[in-house]
Specification:
- The complex is a heterodimer of chains A (192) and B (388).
- By secondary structure, chain A is an all-alpha fold.
- Helix content of chain A is 68%, strand content 0%.
- Chain A contains 9 helices and no strands.
- Chain A has helices at residues 16-24, 28-50, 56-69, 80-104, 115-118, 125-138, 143-154, 159-166, 170-190.
- The longest helix of chain A has 25 residues, at 80-104.
- Chain A is elongated and about 55 Å long.
- Chain A starts with 15 loop residues before the first helix and ends with a helix.
- Chain B is built from 10 helices and 13 strands.
- Chain B has helices at residues 6-9, 19-60, 199-206, 269-281, 285-298, 305-318, 323-336, 340-355, 359-372, 379-385, and strands at residues 63-64, 70-72, 78-81, 87-90, 95-101, 105-118, 126-131, 134-138, 142-148, 151-158, 161-165, 168-172, 176-179.
- In chain B, strands 1, 2, 3, 4, 5, 6, 7, 8, 9, 10, 11, 12 and 13 form a 13-stranded mixed β-sheet that branches.
- In chain B, a hairpin with a 2-residue loop joins strand 7 (126-131) and strand 8.
- The chains are: A mainly alpha (192), B alpha+beta (388).
- At the A-B interface, helix 2, helix 3, helix 6 and helix 7 of A face helix 1 and helix 2 of B.
């Protein structure tokens, strides 16, 4: 095990919490620096959650707009990233609901996602198959169930972590997840 | 790293592209959203408030009554409005009928009960309320007209109204009241052989036997104080059947002026006048005008002739909107009228009629009026009719 490297902080690089506080105070440059710091990580995270079922960059842009408009309501500046992900998940669920509704009334696309663009070529076949099933099932599940399923199955969130990021009660998360798992099992049996 | 997390390692994640342009887009949208957050609630409040106010206004705005409609109030008073924004409040049990209802002309009949009128002032607009044979002309005021059978009461809260009944014109001002006299009792046919009477005597016999309105010579009496109530006695005397009437040699009014032909025995100026008045009250204007014209042209010496001519002219002017015909009728009334009050009213109306199409004639008549009645009630109107 290699010795832990000392963390090197640039003297002029402000702490993220300080940036958040500065942005809350109205400093435009602080808002921009926050965006530049957080956008890449958020984009990657969102793209995994939606599993090719939506445009991650659009969702991220919507998320930051919402976050900067509501920034003054943030009670704990040090929890900015967690708060940002909650907002992003709300955007994701909103998009899932919209797409599901459009598909129901015949206006949405029924094209499955491009699995090659979603699943890494290094994924073992079983993993790839499972990921493919989840990606397909997400299009049919209610938004909350699809989100809970991805967070649990793909991102590995615990039930409490899911409850926190989705801003739901633990009991609700359990119900959503149970329903999603049941649908996944049935889906796997239909199309192994 | 938990086993559950392993799946995420095999999901490709997108890398952000064009962070600078993305930031510009975010910044622009944030600014727009901040403006919307302020403006949208304000617009929503204005919209909701406007809709609510409109709804309330609509709910509170009285029902619009149009020409030809009858409005009745059963157990509760009812308020209606007319096209000229007048407000009519009908007391419980009352009813009124609208004959005309435009921005410039309003004619309302009080069928029964009491109605309060709130009439905004409007230049050139004619607002007339009729109840029985009483006519109230309005300039802009608040007043009440009540009708119980044939008794009509006019009470004025604000402004001034003119009350016309027969040849009488009374001005009722603020906080004043006018009550119509008891109508003549219906004349029953006499069992006696009807006595042949000169038509003038016949006219007198139908009216005030003490010389109230008409004296025995068929002359119209001097005008009483217009602020007082009119008092008219019940008419006495037998009603002559038209078929039984024998024309008297001393009855020149039975002769047509030029032809020398005796009037048909069935024509009776009193009956004709009464029928014309009824037609007028019932809104049969053309028939009423024809009846009044017949009386003043076929029976010029009749006691009813001057008033018939005046009524003919008034209907021509106010209802038919024919100032030339009205002028002709008023000129005839001037020829026939003897009572100063009728002369005064006729001159004023004649000036008004001429003002519409013959200014020199208007000035001539106005001068005549101002010379004869320098303090009369129509001085202001006459002066305005045809300014120099």
């Amino acid at each position: 095990m290699s010795p832990s490297l000392p963390s090197i902080r640039a003297v002029d690089a402000p702490d993220e919490t300080e940036l958040v506080r500065a942005a809350m105070a109205g400093e435009k440059s602080a808002s921009q620096r926050l965006f530049m710091r957080c956008a890449p990580d958020l984009t990657r995270w969102v793209s995994r959650v939606v599993m090719g079922n939506d445009d991650a960059q659009d969702i991220v842009q919507d998320t930051f707009v919402e976050a900067f408009v509501l920034l003054k309501q943030l009670k704990q500046p040090e929890s900015f990233r967690a708060w940002l992900r909650s907002i992003a998940l709300t955007q994701v669920r909103r998009r899932f609901r919209k797409q599901r509704l459009l598909r129901r009334i015949g206006l949405g696309t029924n094209e499955p996602p491009d699995f090659d663009a979603v699943i890494s070529p290094s994924a073992p076949p079983q993993v790839a198959s499972e990921l493919r099933q989840i990606a397909q099932l997400m299009r049919r599940l209610p938004a909350d169930e699809a989100t809970a399923l991805v967070l649990h199955r793909v991102e590995g969130y615990t039930l409490n972590e899911i409850a926190e990021v989705m801003e739901l009660s633990l009991a609700t998360v359990k119900r959503r997840l149970a329903a999603a798992e049941q649908s996944l099992s049935a889906h796997l049996e239909e199309d192994p | 790293m938990s086993a559950q997390r392993r799946l995420s390692h095999f999901v490709k994640s997108a890398e952000p592209v064009g962070l600078d342009s993305e930031w510009e887009a975010v910044n622009r949208r944030v600014r727009r959203r901040r403006v919307q957050r302020v403006v949208t609630p304000v617009l929503a409040v204005l919209l909701v408030g406007g809709l609510a106010a409109g709804g309330v206004w609509q709910a509170r705005r009285p029902e619009l009554l149009e020409a030809g409609q009858l409005a009745e109030a059963s157990s509760l008073a009812r308020t209606v409005r007319l096209a000229d924004d007048s407000r009519l409040t009908i007391a419980a049990g009352g009813a009124l009928r609208v004959d005309e209802a435009t921005d410039d002309d309003v004619l309302v009949f009080v069928e029964r009960g009491s109605s309060e009128f709130s009439v905004p002032k409007k230049k050139g607009r004619h607002f007339t309320v009729r109840a029985g044979d009483v006519e109230v002309r309005v300039v802009g005021t608040v007043f009440r007209v009540s009708r119980a059978a044939e008794t009509v009461t006019v009470e004025v809260d604000e402004g001034v109204v003119e009350v016309h009944q027969g040849e009488r014109v009374v001005r009722v001002g603020r906080q004043e009241q006018w009550v119509s006299p008891r109508p003549p009792a219906p004349l029953e046919p006499s069992d006696d052989e009807p006595e042949a009477l000169p038509l003038e005597r016949e006219a007198a016999a139908h009216l005030d036997d003490e010389g109230g309105l008409f004296d025995e010579d068929g002359e119209q009496p001097q005008a009483t104080d217009p602020e007082r109530r009119l008092k008219r006695r019940a008419v006495k005397g037998p009603r002559r059947q038209a078929t039984e009437q024998e024309p008297s040699p001393a009855a020149p009014s039975g002769m047509l002026p030029d032809s020398g032909v005796a009037a048909a025995p069935e024509l009776n100026p009193a009956d004709l006048f009464r029928d014309a008045m009824r037609d007028r009250n019932e809104g049969a204007v053309r028939r009423a005008m024809a009846g009044f014209q017949l009386v003043c042209e076929r029976f010029p010496s009749s006691a009813f002739a001057p008033m018939s001519a005046f009524e003919w002219g008034r209907l021509a002017m106010d209802v038919e909107r024919d100032p030339r015909l009205a002028a002709r009728a008023f000129e005839r009334a001037l020829e026939l009228a003897k009572a100063p009050s009728l002369v005064e009213d006729t001159l004023a109306r004649l000036a008004e009629a001429y003002s519409r199409f013959d200014l020199p004639a208007c000035r001539r008549v106005s001068s005549e009026y101002l010379r004869r009645f320098p303090t009369g009630p129509h001085v202001t109107g006459v002066k305005k009719a045809c300014p120099e």
